[in-house]
UniProtKB/TrEMBL annotation:
One of its GO terms (molecular function) is phosphopantothenoylcysteine decarboxylase activity. It comes from Salinimicrobium oceani. The chain holds residues 184 to 403 of 403 of the full protein. It catalyses: (R)-4'-phosphopantothenate + L-cysteine + CTP = N-[(R)-4-phosphopantothenoyl]-L-cysteine + CMP + diphosphate + H(+); N-[(R)-4-phosphopantothenoyl]-L-cysteine + H(+) = (R)-4'-phosphopantetheine + CO2. Residues 6-215 form the DNA/pantothenate metabolism flavoprotein C-terminal domain. Its cofactor is FMN; Mg(2+). This is Coenzyme A biosynthesis bifunctional protein CoaBC. Catalyzes two sequential steps in the biosynthesis of coenzyme A. In the first step cysteine is conjugated to 4'-phosphopantothenate to form 4-phosphopantothenoylcysteine. In the second step the latter compound is decarboxylated to form 4'-phosphopantotheine. Pathway: Cofactor biosynthesis; coenzyme A biosynthesis; CoA from (R)-pantothenate: step 2/5; Cofactor biosynthesis; coenzyme A biosynthesis; CoA from (R)-pantothenate: step 3/5. The gene is coaBC.
Amino acid sequence: SSNLPLRKKKVLITAGPTYEAIDPVRFIGNHSSGKMGYELAAAAHAAGAEVILISGPTHLQNPNEDIKLIRVQSAMEMFEATTKYFSEVDVAIASAAVSDYRPRISATQKIKKSSEIMELELVKNPDILATLGSARKNQVLVGFALETENEEENAAGKLERKNLDFIVLNSLNDQGAGFKSETNKIKILFRNGTLKAFDLKSKKEVAQDILTEIIGLLNA
Ligand code: PMT
């Protein structure tokens, strides 16, 4: 029905940051709170979808007990969980802020303070969204781009490289957009080059706008 436009659809969402362990007490992370992704999960559930939410470390609670919430720490764990479920879903939305690198070695004991300069060797993490982009069959695939410069150009590159239907651009140059805030300001860039700009809104309303575009693609 039009009240439940995602009935019988399965939606996978990644959310939150990843923590890349340096040793048992330290990590490399970022400022993602998970809010954007959890609002997407809540909105997809409210639209009738079966939702799998794969979340990095956050303080947020599962928006609904019917949502399958899988909590992970690192990019590698997020990669494992996401690729495990991707083939069974109709829609995947990558809103997580995944660390591009991880420490090559995670020390088993707390690293002791010693020399003035300490070097940490990093290795690249797999790109989860690009992996989905290569594997996709009929799924609708949506990514995010968090930019600080050359926003539209960078987002267009990610849309192409990761083989997405559309990419949601948010810029740290916009007040009230991006990490942590209750609000976000987005632009959506489609494969055909169309760019839709939205006003500053609550993340709940932004999630609804994104789902409306996805429902449009599913019904096209
Ligand atoms: O969690 P909040 O505090 O509410 O903040 C929301 C947000 C700012 C985190 C969110 O709106 C957002 O922009 N998420 C993507 C952040 C990001 O890491 O963007 P990126 O431009 O580095 O990555 C591009 C895309 O590839 C993203 O969809 C990302 O999930 C995905 N990616 C990136 C690297 C990687 N190794 N694997 C991935 O899947």
